[in-house]
Amino acid sequence: MEYRSLGASGLQVPVLSLGTGTFGGRGELFAAWGQTDVAEARRLIDVCLDAGLNLFDSADVYSDGAAEEILGAAIQNRRDQVLISTKATFRHGTAANDVGSSRHALIRAIDRALRRLGTDYIDLFQLHGFDAVTPVEETLRTLDDLVAAGKIRYLGCSNFSGWHLMKSLAVSAHYGWARYVAHQAYYSLVGREYEWELMPLALDQGVGGVIWSPLGWGRLTGRIRRGQPLPATSRLQNPVAARVGPQVPEEYLFHVIDALDEVAAETGKTVPQIALNWLLQRPTVSTVIIGARDETQLRENLGAIGWNLTPDQVAKLDRASAVPKIYPYWHQAGFAERNPFPTPD
Length: 345
What we know:
The structure is a single chain. With about 350 residues, the protein is an alpha/beta fold. It is about 40% helix and about 15% strand. The protein has 13 helices and 10 strands. Helix 7 links the parallel strand 8 and strand 9. Helix 2 runs parallel beside helix 11. The two termini are about 30 Å apart.
């Protein structure tokens, strides 16, 4: 397993990490992902640790807290062998303060997460989304206090826009508070908007990319084909999952899959392995979160490391997945001599 620095921090993380969205299966959305129980989770974690994968990502809203509970039970007596990442901000109850990144909400969210996980510290805590109602100073001061208290070791955010992240980094720098070293963001061969603003920002500010849904919300599993029905177990069969996930035009998707199939024939690798390996060669990416309903899927995803696509194969996938940039990025691309993009297209 290759390890990389998490942004501008000294923490070394594996290039692949395991997401726990399949743990629990509570609620209509997460039932579409999987229903992994404690015994199954323990087995998946065994496989991960044997492969050198020791970072496990969760969130308070995953199966209404059950994912954190299952993860905590599955790592019992081996906390020192693992890194735990979790998130909070989204609504998790009906009360007025059961949402957001206020001081009240964050302190309560951290204490509840620690109880569910059965630990006294979280290695990486990330805001699950930007709270535009709470002052940034209130949020960041609270997070700094939680770091000072030893409840959190490193800070990150998730699903921020460029100005959300840059404003937060500037406020942290102004007051000397703990800063975000990670940004958990959507990025895939069929979702490359991360490259336009967030990737240049991450390069400039030392923020590591923690990539979620690297297979395009289940579209790049190799099981979705032109003219064929969706697999019965695809999350896209679930109307809630299909609605809340990233949208991808069908013809564009199949154009990318055609290119993946060509590279698969050249390499002898599977479509998801190629999609994951492509991401691991992109700038700013510290770790890619893989999911698995079972051990077979997990082992296939672990096969994405230990080899690399050739430059020609990367270029083929880049061309197939490129989309026209929106303003101001297409305009900036015309001034590449002084305003270069991190990726060639």
